[in-house]
# Entry
Amino acid sequence: MGFLTDKRALITGIASNRSIAWGIAQAMSNQGARLALTYQNEKLRPRVEKFAQEFNAEFVAPCDVTTDSQIDTLQESVQEKWSDLDIVVHSIAFAPREQLEGMYLDAVNREGFNQAHDISSYSFSALARSFSPMMHNGNGSFLTLTYLGAMRSMPGYNVMGLAKASLEANVRYCAQSLGNQGIRVNAISAGPIRTLAASGIRGMKSMMDYYEKMSPLGRGVTIEEVGNAAAFLCSDLASGITGEIVYVDGGFNSVGFSQAML
Ligand code: NAP
# Structure
């Protein structure tokens, strides 16, 4: 029996088997969770249906988080299948490609700023507001994914760094709003991993090389490692943890300078 046995988990953001959400779905499924997966649009539906079969997920449903009515429809369909919900994983981010090129001030504009913040941060509050009323069992849990670019400037991460800073504040404010219902809200700040979203970031290879030299573990992290931490944070084992940003980055964020760089 796993530590998530019979917990019902709604997982967003699986685009491929390299997605962080794929690693989370796998880890949660290994620990006995019952899963539902979402897909952004019809193009991705067959792929997500295939993943749903792999994980024995109970259903899949569409949700583009830019549209309130799609979030409402998703909530209605989850309510129809499951009257209670224990876990929501928000593994969604987007910024227009040109926002991630060159220096921040040369790239940023109002539209790109708003879109990045809407999809990558506001959508987390929208999901928390819609799905928290379905968490009746005590110790419900929301989880999102962030990156160190929220705390430190990074070349090419640009407006996404601002959106992640907003997302991290969002975690703390949602934790405050939902704590009196026994609902916990946390984020994992993952080290860089080669996924579809990460392919939009220039210089990913140099960044990975630097990571390997600087992090105490001397290597990058995997979606399995992020998945395992996510499963723990959304389980009753983590019942005292809320409002936290937990780093799963091989310790990179803790280092000023490493032995390997000397
Ligand atoms: P990914 O596989 O490309 O996943 C990103 C997901 O966001 C995709 O499923 C994408 O769907 C979805 N999405 C984008 N816009 C959406 C919208 N309007 N409505 C619904 N879904 C939407 O990349 P990933 O690296 O696993 O990213 C997952 C999360 O981890 C993101 O928040 C990312 O910032 C964070 N993160 C990633 C890294 C890294 O190095 N990879 C490090 C730290 C944190 P489509 O494919 O259909 O657009």
Residues 110-131 form the longest helix (22 residues).
